[in-house]
Design a protein that fits this description.
The protein has one domain (about 1-650). Helices cover about 30% and strands about 10% of the residues. It has 23 helices and 14 strands. Helix 13 (about 395-410) runs parallel beside helix 14 and helix 20 (about 655-665) crosses helix 21 (about 670-680). The protein is globular, with a radius of gyration of 24 Å. The two termini are about 10 Å apart. The chain binds zinc ion (2 copies).
């Protein structure tokens, strides 16, 4: 299982005037000062017949602070929903398209949109070098196909085979010898990744054809051909995947925003075309000074604590069949007809590229009555399976409703607070910001979520959920929850190509919520699906600033998405040495890929006057599939470990996790224990040796994307540049 799909640039700051220019992104496209709120890069083309309408409306208009520039503070809690959605959006996926309109956009919607502060500077967000942007683009293109959001950069591109291409998602960690070359040790890669060879030449020809070809349907056809030639998947899967993405997303962009070469780059990577969504921008922080920092202290003796159930990445596969082929060539296995003989999918799940049957999820939920009591449940998304090439809207909604009903059945009156995952939509990762209306908006999904979750969330939260997939709610007196829609930070969200500046105004809204909480003496838990270091750079750096400013208010952060058990550190922005927060990244419920099913319970400072509501400890539970799948065995969910006990931590505050990373460096046994937990008790055969370890520790220190400076303090034995390269090699191909 891959660790961190994070991208690090080759260096962190400009080293020459020319490079400084590249960081600002000025050489390409229109000057930034002429396109406020718009990323630098090619100007959008207006074309006749475009089938999406971008209107200045929705969130940007409803939050006046957002629409008036950086000096005006938002009114975060006076949130009005977007205009009513077309009924067709709920029922007819490919119904009549909205009439062509203007593309001025609301907040972050493109040219004409409001301007947030931008440009590099102290504490601001650099745009990165062109080379880095191209690497990001390659990784981003691959991630789209992966559907997991994990990074697609990998060995194939390094070996010169051509553009970054959609990966085959069967992940293994295996020694990989380089034919005719000195062995370079182990690296992450995906089984079945196409290797360089004759097919690369075919790919180049395809690239040239694509660069010349403006018709998006033909672009899709060529992409399907390339997918088959490079044996990325079976022809049928290639055809379905390309058709799905082309029809619903690529077509929209290509007609309204992208030039042919950009559409090609989107599909096949930066050697085919280039686009730029990495412009810098800043949200506005409150004028009120940051309150004095008070180091966290343990709760007083006898103070109540609360246990919060944490579920993430359930990935229910409706077609999971015990006894079916667990080693199929497709991106998702253990489905279809059972077959005779050994080697078939296990009854409760399988160590392979498989998701879970419903009875395993139901079994998890059923045994929770012995594992409680819980004060609340946080549920951070990714409900459907990984068969992303063939999912229809009705499939996604069936998964949403079925699993929601299952949770309600087993959890009873326990308050459940969900967050939106990247797999909830189809095509996967496609989350248009609220200025997109009509059939291509996310109304079909958010409306269904609001309906399914209406017993768990109060009306104001349902309103913002319907509008943009995020919300805030009071969990109990003194504790507020913010559920972020992290798809608006995602490099894999196609729609952010139009404009990636604070999509839906979410971060500015977050600032407003935190400011109000600070004034009222509330603490805040933040939940979301994709962890912050996996986000687009400017989003991630802004989020880091917000966490810094509100370190006294944000009591904890909880995420999922990577399927493995890890965390991301946040440090003070001035010195990058004082730990200020931890983003916990909990392991998945699903087995995908090669994992045990699992879930997490957080123990937090409880509901009493003066509570910090901080995380005091956490426990991780698994179902050991080797034991459970033995014929006649009863499934036994068991605690894999308790964090403070397993790692010998005095407490679970940010400084303790920072110290733990340093201890991992020196204590190999302790680090190997972490590696075992990282994989939910089912690690790959090959151990995590020096290079793997250096890259993983670097990832744990990096709470914001593309910031190598956060790793320097580790002083790894290898040159820093090499560590970064190794990190990239660990990525999936
Ligand atoms: Zn997932
Ligand atoms: Zn995910």
């Amino acid at each position: 299982m891959g660790t961190a799909p994070r991208a690090l640039p080759a260096h962190s700051s400009p080293r020459s005037p020319r490079e400084a220019q590249a960081w600002r992104g000025a050489p390409r496209g229109a000057p930034q000062d002429k396109q406020p709120g718009r990323t630098p890069g090619p100007a959008p083309r207006q074309q006749d017949g475009q089938d999406i309408t971008y209107l200045r409306s929705g969130l940007g208009q409803q939050l006046p602070g957002l629409a008036q520039g950086p000096t005006v503070q938002p009114k975060p809690l006076s949130f009005t929903p977007a205009p009513a959605k077309s009924p067709a959006a709920l029922t007819d996926r490919h119904g009549p398209a909205p009439a062509p309109g203007t593309r001025s956009g609301g907040l972050g919607a493109g040219p004409g949109g409001p301007s947030l502060g931008k440009g590099p500077g102290p504490g601001r967000c650099p745009t990165g070098t062109r080379q880095h942007r191209e690497e990001e683009a390659a990784a981003s293109a691959a991630r789209r196909w992966d559907g997991t959001g994990r990074d697609g950069r990998g060995s194939r591109a390094e070996e010169g085979s051509g553009a970054a291409l959609p990966p085959h998602p069967a992940l293994h960690f295996e020694p990989r010898s380089q034919p005719g070359a000195k062995r370079r040790g182990t690296r992450w890669h995906r089984e079945g990744c196409p290797q360089p060879g004759p097919t690369a030449a075919a790919g180049s020809a395809r690239h040239r054809a694509l660069q010349l070809e403006p018709n998006v349907v033909r672009v899709g056809r060529v992409a399907a051909g390339l997918c088959q030639e490079l044996r990325l998947a079976r022809p049928e899967i290639c055809r379905q995947a390309v058709q799905l993405f082309q029809r619903d997303v690529v077509a929209a962009w290509a007609r309204s925003v992208l030039r042919p070469a950009e559409a090609c780059g989107l599909l096949l990577g930066p050697r085919c075309g280039h686009w730029d969504i990495y412009g810098a921008w800043n949200v506005s922080l409150p004028a009120a000074p940051k309150p004095p920092v008070r180091p966290p202290v343990p709760p007083p003796p006898g103070a109540p604590s609360a246990r919060v159930l944490f579920l993430t990445d359930l990935h229910w596969d409706r077609l999971y069949t015990p006894g079916s082929d667990a080693a199929c060539p497709d991106p998702l296995c253990c489905r279809g007809a059972a077959r005779p003989g050994p080697g078939g999918a296990g009854f409760w799940g399988e160590y392979s590229k498989c998701d879970l049957p419903l009875h395993t999820i139901a079994g998890l939920l059923a045994q929770l009555r012995h594992a409680g009591p819980f004060a609340a449940a946080y549920w951070t998304g990714d409900i459907p399976a990984h068969n992303v090439w063939q999912q229809r809207r009705e499939d996604q909604l069936l998964a949403l409703r079925t699993v929601t009903a299952l949770l309600r059945q087993h959890l009873g009156t326990l308050p459940v607070y969900p967050a939106v995952g990247n797999h909830e939509a189809t095509p996967v990762n496609a989350f248009p910001p609220p200025y997109v209306h009509g059939n291509q908006s996310s109304a079909w999904l958010y409306d269904a979520m609001a309906e399914a979750w209406k017993d768990w969330l109060p009306p104001p939260a349902l309103e913002t959920l319907r509008a943009a997939g995020f919300y805030t709610v009071q969990v109990w007196p003194g504790l507020r929850l913010v559920s972020l829609n992290m798809n608006f930070c995602s490099q894999a969200n196609f729609w952010l190509l139009i404009n990636s500046t604070d999509p839906a105004g979410q971060l500015q809204w977050l600032v407003g919520v935190l400011e109000a909480a600070e004034q009222q003496g509330e603490k805040v838990h933040i939940i979301g699906h994709i962890p912050p270091a996996h986000c687009l750079r400017s989003w991630s750096w802004n989020y880091y600033r917000i966490v810094n400013r509100f370190e006294g208010t944000i009591a904890a952060q909880f995420f999922g998405h990577t399927h493995v058990d890890e965390f991301e550190m946040f440090y003070d922005e001035e010195t990058l040495t004082r730990p200020v927060s931890v983003a916990f990244v909990a392991p998945s419920v699903t087995t995908y890929i090669n994992l045990n099913p699992g879930y997490r319970v957080y123990e937090v400072d409880g509901a009493y006057n003066g509570s910090s509501h901080a995380v005091l400890d956490h426990e991780t539970f698994i179902l050991n599939l080797t034991e459970a799948n033995v014929p006649g065995a009863e499934p036994r969910w068991q605690r894999l470990y308790r964090a403070r006990e397993a790692y010998g931590m005095a407490s679970a505050f940010p400084a303790d996790w920072d110290l733990l990373i340093r201890r991992f460096q020196d204590d190999e046994r302790l680090f190997q224990r972490f590696w075992y937990h990282f994989h939910k008790g089912h690690p790959p055969r090959e151990p995590c040796l020096e290079a793997c370890k250096a890259a993983l520790l670097c990832a744990l220190r990096t709470g914001r994307s593309a910031d190598p400076s956060l790793c320097r303090v580790l002083r790894p034995a290898r040159p820093f540049r090499q560590i970064l390269q190794l990190w990239r090699q660990r990525q999936l191909c």
